Amino acid sequence: MRETPGGKQSPGAKQRPGAKREGERRRLQLKVAVWATAEEAADRAGDPTLPSQCAVVIDVLRATSTIVAALAAGAAGVIPVLTPEEARALARTMPGGHVILGGERKAVRIPGFDLGNSPREYRAEEVGGKTIILTTTNGTRAVHAASAAARVLMGAILNASAVARAVIREGRDVVIVCAGTRGSFSLEDTLAAGVILEALPGAADAEGYDLEADYDDLSLAALAIAGHYAGRFDEALRWTHHGMDLEALGFAADLDYCARLDAVPVVPVWSDGVIRLRMGEGAD
Ligand code: MLT
Q1: Mutation probe of ligand 1 site: the residue of 61, 118, 240, 257 with most atoms within 8 A of C-beta
Q2: Which residues are 14's β-sheet partners?
Q3: Which of 29, 62, 108, 152 is positioned for an S-S bond with 270, CB 3.0–4.6 A?
Q4: Is 141 in the pocket of ligand 1 (CB under 6 A)?
Q5: Is the shortest distance between the CB of 117 and ligand 1 below 6 Å?
Q6: Does the Cβ of 60 fall within 6 Å of ligand 1?
Q7: Complete edge-to-edge strand list for the sheet that includes strand 151-155
Q8: 3-state DSSP assignment of residue 176
Q9: pLDDT tens-digit profile of 22-62?
Q10: Global pTM exceeds 0.85
Q11: Structural domains for the chain
């Protein structure tokens, strides 16, 4: 069992005043892996361990941040699909007035769609009570690639601590599936993976567990990246390749929105093709 550099509970572990006494605590042993891209996840979708694992899909810029924002704003559900054609065909089978077509190609709204992929567009007045059919370049592919996992959660910087708590409550080995950008590693997704991993020991402690996590090398790199950018996530997102592209397209405000740690503490969960909020997983 390889431990986090700095000690078994580190980084981020705190002994809460209300934590159970040593003798009453339980051990929680988890294997932790990070996959770098949607393509890697697609290649590994047949991994025989995946159906027993908890997957956390991350596309900070911007698909999973948008899903978090949409569901927090009262959307009934988000259906991630792979192509605009699939989105339109599915919308035609659903009752009019209750469906929103959302998504992007090359980061801008798809012609004929109601909304793009900016989380700031997904306000209660637009999406409340509606089902969103969403297609994005990398993020929705990553969701589908992870779908064989026992549990599939959507992670972002916006909901990092809430997702860490949900992972601990699952008590399963965890794989963090970063969407990446068109087959390449992306700094923002790996940063968010590290932010979620940093929160695991504290979340375990709050649940009365001593966490013994066996981190793979990309998990360790993610933790190092999160430590490096601590308190500077907005700066980190501006520094990324995709962040710079979004800024050039006029979406700078999205970077600030997506960089806010724990600002939208909800846990979207994929089940039977639809992503909904997990009841009872709030900011407590
Ligand atoms: C994606 O899925 O590739 C992204 O969310 C792209 C974007 O920023 O709109």
Answers
A1: 61
A2: none
A3: 152
A4: no
A5: yes
A6: no
A7: 108-109, 99-105, 131-135, 77-80, 274-277, 268-271, 151-155, 54-58, 174-178, 26-35, 209-215
A8: strand
A9: 567 899 999 999 999 999 999 999 999 999 999 999 999 99
A10: yes
A11: 27-272 (3.90.1560.10)
